[in-house]
Specification:
Mean pLDDT: 94
Strand content: 5-15%
Distance between the termini: 60 Å
Shape: globular
Bound molecules: ligand V0D
CATH topology: Undecaprenyl pyrophosphate synthetase
Number of domains: 1
């Protein structure tokens, strides 16, 4: 019994030390300002354990909380989380209904924490198409964190990258038609400002768990020079250690933005 406990304590100790060690090893002067994450692998995580897919989505919330805390501790300015894509409507009706209730459930429990921690909640995507109660919960969260000045927590909800680009094209062509903008004034900068992300800087780092090696219609324009980091770990198993490892790897890379340095 004594020996067993000794080893358990040592093991826990070692694990914690590794996390703290990683945290210290991240160079605080070279942090990515904006980290985007595709929270993928929840359904598969559950199915591997013989659980319903819905259990995986719920388990994904605890990973989400850990990463928000870690990003906040590091001093990251923006995290964008891919929660629901325009393509996810094709999933079984029951799963879609369950997913649509998650923002409410999440915000009911976490909004207090987010407000206290000076976090600003934003969303990108088409909120008009989602159920009324879900919209209401999200709009309330956005409104009640608007005055905050800390980290931006940006949820991509009913988001599609191509739809976003078409939206920007429509807004710009309207301005041109109505004489508020000259056609030859259209620059990359102007175009960017018409995307959902508006004045948010482009992501420096994209993290995709679950072993898929695709962008899947996420932030198509904004990811032009973003460093990509993939892992086979499923989102519910994603934790601070993986997050810190991704940032450390990012810091080792040399970003050239098309130049040669
Ligand atoms: C399920 C893991 C928070 C990923 C996390 C329907 C899959 C839990 C939100 C959320 C989801 C969205 C908007 C907002 C506040 C919170 C969320 C979805 C899925 C999409 F303003 N978790 N979460 N949204 N999951």
């Amino acid at each position: 019994m004594g020996v067993y406990l000794y080893f358990r304590v040592m093991k826990v100790d070692k694990r914690q030390k590794r996390e703290e060690e990683l945290f210290r090893e991240v160079s605080k002067g070279k942090l990515p300002e904006h980290v985007a994450i595709i929270m993928d692998g929840n359904g598969r995580w559950a199915q591997k354990r013989g659980l319903p897919r819905l259990a995986g989505h719920r388990a994904g919330i605890s990973a989400l909380k850990k990463i928000i805390t870690c990003a906040q501790e590091l001093g990251i300015k923006v995290i964008t989380l891919y929660a629901f894509s325009t393509e996810n409507w094709k999933r079984p009706k029951r799963e879609v209904e369950f997913l649509m209730r998650l923002p409410e459930e999440y915000l009911e429990k976490e909004l207090g924490f987010l407000i206290e921690n000076n976090i600003v909640i934003k969303t990108i995507g088409d909120l008009d198409e989602i159920p009324g109660l879900t919209q209401k919960a999200i709009r309330k969260a956005v409104a009640s964190t608007k005055q905050n000045t800390g980290m931006i927590l940006n949820f991509a909800f009913n988001y599609g990258g191509r739809a976003e680009i078409i939206g920007a094209v429509k807004k710009i062509s309207r301005e041109v038609l109505e004489g508020r903008l000259q056609w030859d004034e259209i620059t990359e900068e102007i175009f960017s400002k018409h995307l959902y992300t508006g004045s948010i800087p482009d992501p420096d780092l994209l993290i995709r768990p679950s072993g898929e090696l695709r962008i899947s219609n996420f932030l198509l324009w904004q990811l032009a020079y973003t460093e990509l980091w993939f892992t086979r770990v499923m989102w519910p198993d994603f934790n601070k250690k993986y997050f810190l490892k991704a940032i450390k790897d990012y810091q080792k890379r040399e970003r050239r933005f098309g130049g040669i340095l």
